[in-house]
Amino acid sequence: MTRRIRFLILVLLAAVAFATQPARAHVGSPDVYVEGNAGPYKLSVVVRPPLVIPGVAQIELRSQTPGIDRIEITPIPLTGEASKHPPVPDAMQRPSADAQYFTGHLWIMATGSWQIRFSVSGSQGPGVFSVPVPATAMGTRKMERGLGIILVVLGIVLFVGLVGIVGAAARESQLPPGAEAPPVSRRRAYVAMAVTFSLLLVLVIFGNKWWGAEAAEYSKYIYKPLEMHAQLQPGNVLDLKLSDPGWIKQRKLDDFIPDHDHLMHLYMVRWPAMDVVFHLHPEATGTGEFKLGLPSVPAGDYRLYADVVHATGFPETLVSSITLPYISGRPLVGDDAEGTTIAIKPGDTPTQTSAAYKLPDGYTMSWKRPNILIAKAPYDFTFELLDPNGQPASDMALYMGMPGHAAFVKTDGSVFAHIHPSGSASMAALMIAQSQNDQAQGGQPSSDGKNMSGMDMNRGAPPSTVSFPYGFPSAGTYRIFVQMKHGNMIETGTFDAVVEAPPEKQQ
Ligand SMILES: [Cu+2]
């Protein structure tokens, strides 16, 4: 009996562990991949935030610069009074003989906008770098059907078993072995079983109520992104109304801050073919409302992914969809960009599997495609823009202050991540963190621009290559939209990636 109960508890614990599912900044892509400089040391950092709050964030760090002796990590709120009073730091470990690879973990105690500060010391002196980490409790998922059936069957066995045991005890416990139970014992047994049955039933009903109340309480803290309602208004105006479905009280609808030049970055992807993509920038027209005069848009169903950042540095991606007729709208201007490409075939079959993507104006975008892509592993996604002669493009320009922007979209719609050369953290949050570090070091900006944009701003024309640190959150098929600018032309390259599950961890 005790064994069975222990097994049941184990099964229940496993069910709880699997019942959590990531979601928050970006969509379905909670891990933070960032590249930046801590003084003289160039760091690639992965922060895997906890599934529940309070919970433990896992941190992996690779230094591309040798000579580091020690790295201390501290979790600090990104903004507010508490951001000025960091707790005692923890030291990172070197888990292997690799002197440039470090790991660590930290408790994140509250929901909100955090940063992890890396204080590095080594042969080239000290350096500080901060990685913004939005931390939220995750959504719960319905229990898997199979597991539910097993648990129900086991529950019934326990229920019936207990009633039977009580009945047998009442009927036969005082009889000598082999003796037949007299009618009076049988009656006593029926009464005992009826009482036990009723008591158990009350217990089950009460337990279900209690469980429901606990779940309801917890669900208040589970992250729910702002809701967005999209509507086409006369004059080809796309109207986006934001509303708060209820989450933590601190969230507001009127505290957005610009993130690389715009309050909102809207990706419109024709769905499910993913053959048309727009990167547009709606303007705020009131509290929780954005509007955008649409350019010419082919008819179809579109998925809308809108990135915004709150004043706290907390980023959100709002998701909506809209069916549009063919729209003959304004020309693309400024930072607007459009890409048209081959449709994903039904069944998520990728069509853009080549390493080179031919652009409409004769240029080519090429991807240094790794041989194998594994979920959860960090990669540098490196792309190069070649001119019609196959030479590195010489007329490169920054696109919204950066050498490139990339959107990673899973073909089943469960993942959307807008990534920059500095990684997956929001640029606005990175800047908040970096300015604090600069102030802490005596007001002198310590960064050379690399932390902000992934490149050195002071060295002439941008390079013809761009690199995005990122890792796929899960196995499956993804389409990657990469945007680079040369002259006045914003190019959109498309690449499909089939991502494998990571190998099972050794027990
Ligand atoms: Cu961007």
Keyword list:
single chain; 507 residues; alpha+beta; 5-stranded antiparallel sheet; 5 helices; 20% helix; globular; binds copper (II) ion
How would you describe what is shown here?
- Helices cover 20% and strands 36% of the residues.
- It is globular and about 100 Å long.
- With 507 residues, the protein is α+β, with helices and mostly antiparallel strands.
- A five-stranded antiparallel beta sheet has the order 18-17-13-14-19, with no helix packed on it. Strands 23, 24, 25, 27 and 28 form a five-stranded antiparallel beta sheet that branches.
- Helix 2 packs antiparallel against helix 3.
- Bound molecules: copper (II) ion.
- Copper (II) ion binds next to loops.
Please state how the strands of the largest beta sheet are arranged side by side.
18-17-13-14-19
Tally the helices: what do you get? Answer: 5
Q: What integer value in Å does the Rg equal?
A: 28 Å
Shape: globular
- N→C terminal distance: 28 Å
Beta-strand level of the residues, as a percent range?
Answer: 35-45%
Q: Structural class of the helices, strands and pairings? A: alpha+beta
Low-confidence stretches: 10-23, 446-458
**Count of distinct strands:** 28
State the share of residues found in helices, binned by percent. 10-25%
Bound molecules: copper (II) ion
**What would you call the quaternary organization?**
single chain
Q: Summarize model confidence as the mean pLDDT.
A: 88
- Report the major sheet: 5 strands, antiparallel
